[in-house]
Amino acid sequence: MKKIGSFLVMLVLFSFLLSGCYYFSAKKEMRNADKLINELKAAGGETLAPYEYCSAGDFFVVSQIEFNEKDFKASKQFAERSKSAAEAGLTKAKKK
Fold this sequence. Notes:
The chain is mainly α.
């Protein structure tokens, strides 16, 4: 009985740690995506790379919604997509 109790405690702690990891990684990705979106805007991304600019912004909004709903894994994934779109937009804006 004691082994089962300790196993359950370890399982609960592990799940909390795992969810905490997603929290911090999602927060970090969101910061990076926000920074890149601001850089894209400063580089004239609204006119030079409108598709990438809108995509990056929309993915970032969805990332924020997922984060507020405590779905940190989905939030991180949408922040990564936002960051990717912003990077593509920056590349496109710098070529023009």
